[in-house]
C-alpha cells in the first residue's frame, strides 16, 4: 500500500506534465498514461516543433525522459520522498530545455500535499511495482479485446493518474446531465467534461481488495442497474460508489482468467446498454469480421 500511494503521487506529477503541453481531447483523454512493454508511458507529447515523452520503466526501475532532439535523462525509481522525485523530474525537463510549469499538488486525494513538500510518501518496493505493472499488462490486454467489439465512440485503454485506474469507456452517442462533481481537490468542471456524454466504463483499480479489483459503472446510472444479473457470481454491486466490482484474485485464480474477466466486462456493459436502451446494433461488431481476408 505504501508503494502504491507513493507511485500514485509520482504518476500525478508525470501526468500533469503531459497535461501542461497537450491540447484538450474530449473527456481529458490527452492527460492519460498508457501501458507499455516496460511500464507506463505518456506517449509522445508535442513541444515546439518536436516532442518528448516520459516512461516509468518497472523493469529497470527508472523514469526515462526523452526528447526528439536526442536528449535523454533518467530519474531513479527507488525509495525517495515525492518532493525529491518532483525536483529531479522537473530538473530533468529543464536540462532538456523543456521548461514546464504544473499545478504542483495532487488531485482526487485528501489531503493534497504539495509535491515539493511531500516527504510523507517515500516508499518504493521494486518487486511490488513490477507486479503492479504485470497486473496492468494483463488487464490492458483483455480490456483491449473487449474494446475491439465496439465500433461506436470508445476511449483508448488508458491509465488515469487522478484516481489511479486503468480504464476503457464506451459511449452511447447521447449527451448526459451535468455531473455533480465531488471528487476531493478537483474542480467540478473537470467531472462535467469527463462525464458530458452517456457512458459505460470499466477497468482495473489497485484498491477495492487485497490485490485490487476490476470495476464497471454507468453514467447516468439507469434504473435497475444495481440489480441487473451480472457475471461471474463473485461480482457484486457496491452502493457507496455506484460500481460493480470483481476482486482481482477471482480472475487471477480462475481456470480461464480471460474468459472470466470478459464475462464481467460484457455483462456489466449489457446492464448499462439494455437498461438505457442504447442502439446496440449500430455500435457493436465482430472484431473478426475481416479475418477470412487477412493473411497470417
Give short descriptive properties of this protein.
296 residues, alpha+beta, 2 domains, six-stranded antiparallel β-sheet, 7 helices, 12 strands, 31% helix, 22% strand, globular, DUF5996, Ava_C0101 and related proteins
Number of domains: 2
* Mean pLDDT across all amino acids: 96
Strand count, sense and barrel status of the largest sheet are: 6 strands, antiparallel
Residue windows where pLDDT falls under 50 for at least 5 positions: none
Identify the quaternary structure here.
Answer: single chain
Describe this structure in words.
InterPro entries: DUF5996. It comes from Nonomuraea rubra. It holds the Pfam family DUF5996. This is Ava_C0101 and related proteins. The protein has about 300 residues and is α+β, with helices and mostly antiparallel strands. The protein has two domains: about 120 residues; about 160 residues, no CATH class. The chain contains seven helices and twelve strands. The strands form two sheets. Strands 1, 2, 3, 4, 5 and 6 form a six-stranded antiparallel sheet that branches. Strands 7-8-9-10-12-11 form a six-stranded antiparallel sheet. Strand 9 and strand 10 form a beta hairpin. Helix 1 packs parallel to helix 2 and helix 3 crosses helix 6. The chain is globular, with a radius of gyration of 20 Å. The N and C termini lie far apart (about 45 Å). The mean pLDDT is about 95.
Amino acid at each position: 500500500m505504501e508503494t502504491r500511494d507513493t507511485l500514485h503521487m509520482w504518476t500525478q506529477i508525470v501526468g500533469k506534465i503531459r497535461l501542461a503541453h497537450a491540447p484538450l481531447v474530449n473527456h481529458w483523454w490527452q492527460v492519460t498514461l498508457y501501458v507499455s512493454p516496460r511500464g507506463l508511458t505518456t506517449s509522445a507529447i508535442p513541444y515546439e516543433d518536436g516532442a518528448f515523452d516520459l516512461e516509468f520503466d518497472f523493469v529497470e526501475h527508472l523514469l526515462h525522459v526523452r526528447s526528439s532532439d536526442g536528449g535523454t535523462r533518467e530519474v531513479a525509481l527507488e525509495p525517495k520522498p515525492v518532493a525529491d522525485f518532483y525536483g529531479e523530474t522537473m530538473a530533468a525537463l529543464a536540462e532538456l530545455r523543456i521548461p514546464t510549469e504544473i499545478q504542483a499538488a495532487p488531485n482526487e486525494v485528501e489531503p493534497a500535499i504539495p509535491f515539493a513538500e511531500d516527504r510523507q510518501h517515500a516508499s518504493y518496493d521494486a518487486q511490488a511495482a513490477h507486479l503492479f505493472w504485470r497486473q496492468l499488462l494483463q488487464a490492458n490486454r483483455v480490456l483491449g479485446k473487449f474494446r475491439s467489439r465496439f465500433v461506436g465512440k470508445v476511449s483508448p485503454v488508458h491509465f488515469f493518474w487522478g484516481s489511479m485506474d486503468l480504464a476503457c469507456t464506451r459511449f452511447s452517442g447521447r449527451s448526459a446531465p451535468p455531473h455533480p462533481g465531488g471528487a476531493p481537490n478537483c474542480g467540478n468542471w473537470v467531472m462535467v467534461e469527463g462525464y458530458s456524454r452517456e457512458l459505460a466504463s470499466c477497468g482495473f483499480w489497485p484498491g477495492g481488495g487485497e490485490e485490487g479489483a476490476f470495476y464497471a459503472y454507468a453514467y447516468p446510472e439507469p434504473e435497475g442497474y444495481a440489480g441487473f444479473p451480472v457475471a461471474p457470481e463473485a461480482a457484486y454491486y457496491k452502493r457507496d460508489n455506484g460500481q460493480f466490482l470483481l476482486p482481482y484474485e477471482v480472475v487471477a485464480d480462475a481456470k480461464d482468467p480471460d474468459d472470466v474477466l470478459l464475462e464481467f466486462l460484457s455483462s456489466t456493459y449489457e446492464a448499462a446498454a439494455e437498461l438505457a436502451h442504447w442502439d446496440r446494433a449500430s455500435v457493436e461488431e465482430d472484431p473478426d469480421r475481416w479475418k477470412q481476408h487477412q493473411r497470417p
